[in-house]
Structure formats: structure tokens, C-alpha cells
Amino acid sequence: MEKTNALSAFSALSQPTRLDVFRLLIEAGDAGMLAGEIAEALDVRQNTMSANLSVLLGAGLVRKTREGRAIRYFADTDGLRGLLGFLLQDCCGGRPDLCQPLIEDIACSC
């Protein structure tokens, strides 16, 4: 991931509702959630939710699929992996073996 993309992701996550959406979608896993379900779960108006989801999409942190008239959103694990990789690419003074415990702690075992 390039620095510009990382900054876009951090900017997207710096807003409380968008951070809540992203964490909710991570929790939802492969099932994802419909846009209306996300709005209801977080008690956010649908048009506000739509704008926040667009920002997360643009930052590469979520992906979507159409289901008839509804849209289902998912956490984009590739985007998250890229962001974490960006943060850890030069960790531990060039000794990635020192970072292994940290990587194991944050790695999903699902």
C-alpha cells in the first residue's frame, strides 16, 4: 500500500461513525450486512450512512455487492491487510522476527 492510500484509509477511519461501521463489518465477517441493517444497528439516518459507506469504499476498506434493490457491504480484508502491512513493513529495525508476536496477536484465526 502506498502512503497516499494509507492516509486515505486513516482519514476514513478518523470519523466516529465510519470507525463504528468498519468494526461492525469486521464483526459481521463473510455474511456482511445490508446498508439498512448497518444504519439501524448504529442508529444513523440512511442518507448519512450512505455518505459514510462511500468514504469507506473510496478508501478501500469496504466492498459491496448488489442484492436486487439492496446493497450488502463487507469489510475489505485485503484493504485492511494492506494498511496493516504498510504500518509494519519496516518494523523492528529490519528484524521482522521481533514483530512476529505482534503479527500473531492481530492476525485473524477465523
Detailed description of the structure:
There is one protein chain. By secondary structure, the protein is an alpha+beta fold. It has one domain: Winged helix-like DNA-binding domain superfamily/Winged helix DNA-binding domain (Arc Repressor Mutant, subunit A). The protein has 6 helices and 3 strands. A hairpin with a 2-residue loop joins strand 2 and strand 3. Helix 1 packs antiparallel against helix 4, helix 2 (about 15-30) crosses helix 4 and helix 3 crosses helix 4. It starts with a helix and ends with a helix.
Helix-strand layout with pairing:
Blueprint: H1 3-13, H2 16-28, E1 33-34, H3 35-42, H4 46-58, E2 62-67, E3 70-75, H5 77-88, H6 96-106
Antiparallel strand pairs: 1-3, 2-3
Helix pairs in contact: 1-4, 2-4, 3-4
Q: Assign the CATH class.
A: Mainly Alpha
Q: What would you call the shape? A: elongated
Strand content: 5-15%
Could you give a short account of the major beta sheet?
3 strands, antiparallel
CATH topology (fold) name? Arc Repressor Mutant, subunit A
Distance between the termini: 24 Å
The count of domains is 1
Indicate the radius of gyration in whole angstroms. 15 Å
Given the structure, what is the number of helices?
6
Uncertain runs are none
Provide the structure class. Answer: alpha+beta
Tell me roughly what share of residues is in helical segments. 55-70%
CATH superfamily: Winged helix-like DNA-binding domain superfamily/Winged helix DNA-binding domain
Order of helices and strands: HHEHHEEHH
What is the overall pLDDT average?
88
The CATH architecture comes to Orthogonal Bundle
The total count of strands amounts to 3
Going across the biggest sheet, name each strand in turn: 1-3-2
